[in-house]
Design goal:
single chain, alpha+beta, Aspartate Aminotransferase, domain 1, four-stranded antiparallel sheet, two-stranded parallel ribbon, 3 helices, 6 strands
Length: 106
């Protein structure tokens, strides 16, 4: 099982453009779902935080399934999930998250 942790803080020094690219990539993947998919609430290229809601699904249930079934750790933020990106998360890992969410939602 692949482990991806979206709960770690940003490192003290990092390339802001690398972080912004990852935020844009995950945001685009979340928007790709279309109807029945996640609702992108925010995507902050400066902080690396991406928030998404899952209409018709409990965010806590999605969070729990991501962690237990796929090894993907996120934080619950009200009725949404918070993905804290870092410049060290690979683009392939973001694509993997998309695939796991697709499996859970459809």
């Amino acid at each position: 099982m692949k482990y991806i942790d979206f709960t770690t803080s940003l490192p003290q020094s990092y390339d802001p453009e690398q972080l912004a690219r990852r935020v844009r990539h995950l945001s685009a993947r979340l928007r790709d779902f279309g109807p029945g998919g996640p609702e992108l609430l925010s995507a902050d290229q400066t902080t690396g935080q991406v928030r998404a809601r899952f209409p018709g699904h409990s965010a806590d249930d999605i969070r729990r399934q991501l962690e237990e079934r796929f090894g993907i750790r996120t934080r619950l933020d009200g009725d949404a999930l918070l993905f804290q990106l870092t410049p060290h998360i690979a683009f392939e890992e973001l694509d993997h998250v998309w695939g796991c969410l697709f499996e859970l939602l459809f």
